[in-house]
Design brief:
The chain is α/β, with parallel strands linked by helices and about 425 residues long. Helices cover about 35% and strands about 15% of the residues. Among the domains are: about 130 residues, Periplasmic binding protein-like II (D-Maltodextrin-Binding Protein, domain 2, 3-Layer(aba) Sandwich), CATH 3.40.190.10; about 60 residues, Membrane-bound Lytic Murein Transglycosylase D, Chain A, CATH 3.10.350.10. The strands form two sheets. Strands 1, 2, 3, 4, 5, 6, 7, 8, 9 and 10 form a ten-stranded mixed beta sheet that branches. Helix 1 links the parallel strand 1 and strand 2.
Length: about 425
């Protein structure tokens, strides 16, 4: 299997976030998202068709597959083994033949790997900004989201909240389905790099982090968080994320959920049967119970999509520009893109550690973009366009280190300010 290169967000800021556990389950037992499983016999006296393996993002697992797989089995079909982790691991597995179906909150990114697969939209969900219930902010605009993800708005007081840093969380793989879909709307490119110091392996781990942090902000979907008392969704442009507001297109950040399949799979016929099953009344009832809209119920949204994207992009960028043509996304073979028990993950993590060590040596030997206020390895003068996370990346340290060494209460910095960037 080819190793895909990923354009990571600030790699030096992984820290403890990279050890976040994966959300994992099967239709019959709960597991720790292993990469290789022994499946049941492909045929049994009491079931039709071969057993199937589904792997993919937590969003599609919760919203679509978990309970529909149970309905599938009740109709007499073989078991579907579920391995929820993230988008990239699922697409990789289907492409490599170790899974039969994948779940994704984005369509094909145009890469050769994706182009060999089939992305079938099965439902509509809402991309939602989530925060801790104690956070007083009750609305964000798409323009504010653009500036927050670019690191230009870093304090809640600038969006109507308290004087506290916005602790922005993101999934480490920029081609994660949920992250990719939002960035495609805000920036016109799903693989747009952003300024997010807190990186997680999947949306489940991200949600767990925000639930504990009154200053946290991150991205999930309505199906993921609906009914979770530890999280609160923030309306966008004054519109709350609800199924009704998805259906009429008034909530601007809606997205299709996909099942991803390989037309060359030896189980292609059984896979097609399952995808077709999602059009049944039983399956649609399950989708509605999970706060998602069956795809055909929202088919009118397809005709509105170009107009919607142009409007969101114009408001996000505060211009009359139209979004650029979708660029192929960053590819996948990074540590966070594969289930944590896989050999590819361990190899990728080792390579990432080597790159981080080399980058730290380079940063220590350079003066950076601005003129150093003292020795290059000791102090740094903030230059135009600098962010605290960018300076941390440049010098191979963490944002938390910079806050501690410089007695900063938040991530706000000023042009010309001298920052200590190393510690003896």
């Amino acid at each position: 299997m080819s190793v895909r290169a990923v354009r990571l967000l600030p790699a030096f800021l992984l820290g403890a976030c990279l050890v976040a556990p994966a959300f994992a389950a099967t239709t019959t037992t709960t597991k720790s998202a292993p990469v290789h499983h022994k499946t049941t016999s492909s045929k049994s006296k009491s079931s039709k068709g071969p057993a199937l393996i589904w792997r993919g993002d937590v969003t599609t697992a919760r919203a679509v597959v978990t309970d529909i797989a149970k309905e599938w089995q009740r109709t007499g079909h073989a078991r579907i083994e579920l391995q929820p982790f993230n988008t990239a691991s699922g697409i990789d597995a289907v492409a490599g033949g170790t899974a039969d179906l994948a779940g994704s909150a984005r369509g094909s990114d145009g890469t050769p790997e994706d182009s060999r697969l089939t992305f079938t939209p099965v439902a509509w969900d809402a991309l939602v900004m989530i925060t801790n219930p104690s956070n007083p902010v009750r609305n964000l605009t798409v323009r504010q989201l653009h500036e927050i993800y670019f690191g230009k708005i870093t304090n809640w007081k600038d969006v109507g909240g308290k004087d506290a840093p916005i602790d922005l969380y993101a999934v480490i793989s920029p081609n994660d389905g949920v992250e990719y879909s939002l960035r495609a709307l805000l920036y016109g490119h799903g693989d747009q790099q952003i300024s997010a110091p807190r990186l997680y392996l999947n949306t489940k781990a991200l949600e767990d982090g925000i639930a504990l942090n009154p200053n946290g902000l991150g991205l999930s979907t309505l199906a993921n968080v609906n009914g979770n008392p530890k999280l609160r969704t923030i309306p966008v442009d004054g519109v709350a994320p609800t199924v009704a507001n998805i259906a009429d297109g008034s909530y601007p950040l809606y997205t299709p959920l996909y099942l991803v399949t390989n037309p060359n799979s030896t189980k292609a016929a059984a896979v097609k049967d399952f995808v077709d099953f999602l059009q049944s009344d039983k399956a649609k009832a399950v989708l509605r119970d999970h706060s998602v809209l069956p795809y055909q119920d929202g088919i009118a949204l397809v005709a509105k999509d170009e107009e919607r994207r142009e409007k969101v992009y114009a408001e996000s960028t505060a211009s009359n520009a139209k979004p650029p043509l979708a660029a192929p996304g960053a590819s996948y073979a990074a540590a966070a893109a594969i289930a944590p028990t896989s050999e590819r993950t361990e190899a990728a993590r080792a390579a990432l550690d080597e790159r981080n060590a080399a980058a730290k040596e380079t940063a220590a030997a350079s003066t950076g973009a601005g003129k150093p206020a003292g020795e290059a390895s000791k102090a740094y003068t903030v230059a135009k366009g600098d962010t605290l996370s960018g300076i941390a990346q440049k010098h191979g340290v963490t944002v938390a280190d910079l806050r501690d060494w410089n007695h900063l209460k938040n991530d706000n910095i000023k042009l010309g300010q001298s920052l200590q960037v190393s510690h003896d």
